């Protein structure tokens, strides 16, 4: 089921890219990368600063939850992972929304006279890449969710498992950043 939803979103991302065209879609892809960099730069510090502001859900204790995709080192508590993931998501989506609003002001760039087929094809490729990265980030963060049904759903989807573990460069780099590999 998750594999079907992933494929559906990838198709929608591609169609959106074709509609937007290469210039506007490149802007959206760049905003995704900038949002990722902003979130990655500040999530750790915010997690430390605001740890007491957002209560850690008491139902999410370390016992009984099997993180299918990763094993968290015993030196890192599940509450620490929760706070880091929370602030990463807030920073990522906050930055992405702000940048998307700014990019929407440049909507007229879709009318730049470039060969229509090339503009649509490249826009579709950028749309696919943007949606792939977006889905990867959602799946990567969901893989840390201490909810057994989410863990089971990811484990039962070969496409989701493949994306989390084998996305070139990004998967390995993020796993190293989180401390899962050295």
Distance between the termini: 33 Å
The average pLDDT score comes to 82
The poorly predicted ranges are none
- Count of individual beta strands: 0
Largest sheet: none
The total tally of domains equals 1
Give structural attributes.
mainly alpha, 182 residues
Brief overview:
This protein is 70% helix and 0% strand. The chain is an all-alpha fold and 182 residues long. It has one domain (2-51, 66-178).
Annotate the secondary structure layout:
Blueprint: H1 2-20, H2 22-49, H3 78-104, H4 116-142, H5 148-155, H6 158-166, H7 170-178
Describe it.
The mean pLDDT is 82. This protein has helices spanning 2-20, 22-49, 78-104, 116-142, 148-155, 158-166, 170-178. It contains 7 helices and no strands. Helix 1 crosses helix 2 (22-49), helix 2 (22-49) runs antiparallel to helix 3 and helix 2 packs parallel to helix 4 (116-142). The protein has one domain. The two termini are 33 Å apart. The chain is mainly α.
């Amino acid at each position: 089921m998750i594999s079907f939803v992933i494929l559906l979103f990838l198709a929608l991302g591609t169609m959106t890219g074709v509609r937007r065209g290469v210039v506007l879609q490149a802007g959206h892809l760049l905003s995704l990368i900038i949002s990722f960099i902003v979130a990655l730069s500040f999530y750790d510090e915010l997690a430390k600063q605001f740890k007491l502001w957002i209560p850690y859900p008491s139902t999410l204790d370390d016992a009984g939850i099997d993180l299918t995709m990763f094993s968290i080192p015993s030196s890192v508590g599940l509450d620490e992972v929760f706070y880091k993931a929370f602030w990463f998501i807030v920073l990522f989506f906050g930055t992405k929304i702000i940048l998307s609003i700014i990019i929407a002001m440049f909507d007229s760039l879709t009318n730049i006279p470039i060969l229509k087929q090339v503009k649509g094809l490249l826009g579709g490729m950028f749309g696919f890449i943007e949606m792939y990265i977006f889905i990867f980030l959602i799946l990567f963060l969901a893989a840390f969710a201490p909810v057994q049904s989410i863990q089971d759903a990811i484990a039962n989807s070969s496409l989701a498992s493949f994306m989390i573990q084998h996305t070139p460069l990004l998967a390995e780099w993020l796993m190293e950043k989180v401390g899962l590999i050295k």
